[in-house]
Design goal:
The structure holds two protein chains of two kinds. By secondary structure, chain A is an alpha+beta fold. In chain A, about 15% of the residues lie in helices and about 30% in strands. Chain A has two helices and seven strands; from the N terminus they run ββααβββββ. Chain A has a five-stranded mixed β-sheet, covered by helices on one side. In chain A, a hairpin with a 2-residue loop joins strand 3 and strand 4. The longest helix of chain A is centred in the middle third of the chain and has 11 residues. The radius of gyration of chain A is 12 Å and the shape is globular. The N and C termini of chain A lie far apart (about 40 Å). Chain B is built from 17 helices and 13 strands. Chain B starts with a helix and ends in an 8-residue tail after the last helix. The chains are: A alpha+beta, B alpha/beta. The interface between A and B is large, with 26 and 52 residues.
Chain lengths: ~90, ~400
């Protein structure tokens, strides 16, 4: 099991939780597990069966796009960060 | 008990001396020694050996370790005629410096031999006092403060992030601060936009910012641009010449626009963004790390990215993130430390937690990649509307 950190913009879709445990050996399985419980997350995270271009997924601080994308392995207990772009500054 | 002359002779017999010819050869060599001027401030300000650092004799023992941490590096120490520097050389040897030489004849002999000198610029008395806490920091010092006074920083937005960033940059003595903002001060801004005040309601934020900042520090020239940055005016604004850009915009089109402009002009861009209790900050430094498009190739559809106006923001949060941006901007101006290049700092105010993720340049990035496909400004509003201008 791993911990997925949920950014504030997505918390409404997971009942307000800051982090959610999820099960899987790679990013795809973890996200599938997460989205099976919180289906509203799908359009925020996935586009054309891949990670949406406006969101980043980090496993232990590394962007999975620079690793193996959805196939990036995730060790037991690893922290996964979901990070959509934020524009706010004013 | 020896008199002064005898003591000086004794010290000179115990240390190494170099004459100006030897010193000039040493300074031209690959293993250039550190040159330390131990004269008083008024002597130093009238001219020095190029590249020398200034550590007055009276502060030598307490300050030399910061200025010269490597005790094996050769040091040439000089004063006016070679007496104070002889005593200084002896002290340095006692402190464990292995290769110290005093310049025989000192600066007077150096100058008389027609060797190059330089006239250091210096802070006047009022500036020396105002910036004394900077001058005391070895990494900043008088040189660094003079550099800040020559620096030019452009801020996008005089709002939540722009307020603390601009206040601290102005207080630090950044000589020229540009502020791009097309908005007026509204009551709902004052919970966080600390550069403005109740008495300024309805004023242009750029004008309000100019008054606040120039009152805080008259050394600073504030250039307000009372307009929204667009593809049509970005080149005109950048033509005024900026060393660093601080992005505190509130919308994606401006963020992509300034990213592209910064990449093409080779200007470091200090990024910050905030929402509710969380903030992000990083530095996009062209040629040394990723750009905003490497981080987020596309903006989210508008319905998935609520702004602070829609979702709210804790008032102090921009104070923290904007201050981090100011700190990064100062480091970039000074050329010190390790800026947040290739690192995205995440701050969660509810958990009081900082975390960091690694950012990498994308070789396929359409703007900063190996084969860029976007080489001129696009319609950024359209690009961010979910109907990309580029396929």
């Amino acid at each position: 099991m791993s911990i997925i950190r949920i950014p504030p913009a997505l918390r409404a879709d997971v009942g307000g939780a800051r982090q959610v445990p999820a099960v899987g050996d790679n990013v795809r399985e973890l996200l599938d597990d997460l989205m099976s419980r919180f289906p509203a997350l799908r359009r925020q995270l996935v586009e054309d069966d891949d990670i949406a271009p406006f969101v980043n997924v980090y496993v232990e601080g590394e962007d999975v796009r620079t690793l193996d994308g959805l196939d990036t392995p995730v060790d037991e207990g690893a922290t996964v960060i979901l990070l959509p772009a934020m524009a706010g500054g004013l | 008990m020896p008199n002064y002359r005898e003591l000086l002779q004794q010290v000179k017999s115990e240390i190494d001396e170099v004459d100006v010819t030897q010193a000039r050869e040493l300074l031209a060599s690959e293993d250039r020694p550190l040159v330390v001027d131990v004269r008083e401030l008024d002597e130093w300000t009238e001219g020095r050996i190029p590249g020398a650092i200034h550590v007055p004799r009276g502060n030598l023992e307490s300050r030399i370790e910061q200025a010269a941490p490597d005790r094996s590096r050769q040091i040439v120490v000089y004063c006016a005629v070679g007496a104070r520097s002889a005593f200084a050389a002896k002290s340095l040897e006692e402190l464990g410096y292995e290769h110290v030489a005093s310049l025989a004849g000192g600066y007077v002999e150096w100058k008389r031999s027609g060797l190059p000198t330089e006239l250091p610029r210096s802070l006047d008395g009022a500036k020396r006092q105002r910036y004394s806490r900077h001058v005391l920091i070895p990494e900043v010092g008088e040189e660094g403060q003079l550099r800040l006074l020559d620096s030019r920083v452009l801020l996008l937005g005089a709002g939540g992030l722009g307020s603390p960033a601009a206040l601290y940059l102005a207080a630090a003595g950044v000589g020229r601060i540009g502020i791009v903002d097309d908005d007026r001060v509204d009551a709902s801004n004052l919970q966080r936009q600390v550069m403005h005040s109740t008495g300024r309601l309805g004023e242009w934020k750029g004008e309000s910012a100019k008054r606040t900042l120039e009152e805080l520090n008259p050394d600073v020239e504030v250039v307000p641009y009372l307009e929204r940055m667009t593809s049509d005016n970005v080149e005109r604004i950048l033509a005024d010449g900026w060393d660093v850009i601080v992005d505190g915009a509130d919308n994606f089109p401006t963020r992509y626009l300034i990213n592209d402009a910064a990449v093409w002009h080779g200007i470091p861009l200090v990024h910050g963004s905030i929402y509710r209790f969380e903030g992000q900050a990083t530095v996009f430094k062209p040629g040394e790390g990723p750009c905003y498009r490497c981080l987020f190739p596309q903006p989210p559809p508008p319905e998935l990215a609520p702004s602070c106006a829609e979702g709210g923001v804790l008032g102090v949060l921009p104070g923290i993130v904007g201050s981090l941006q100011a700190s990064e901007a100062l480091k970039l101006c000074l050329g010190i430390g390790e800026p947040l290049v290739g690192r995205l700092l995440l701050f969660d105010a509810l958990a009081t937690e900082f975390s960091e993720v690694t950012l990498r340049r994308d070789p396929a990035c359409p703007v900063c990649g190996d084969n860029p496909t976007i080489t001129e400004y696009v319609d950024y509003v359209e690009f961010c509307s979910g109907r990309p201008a580029h396929a």
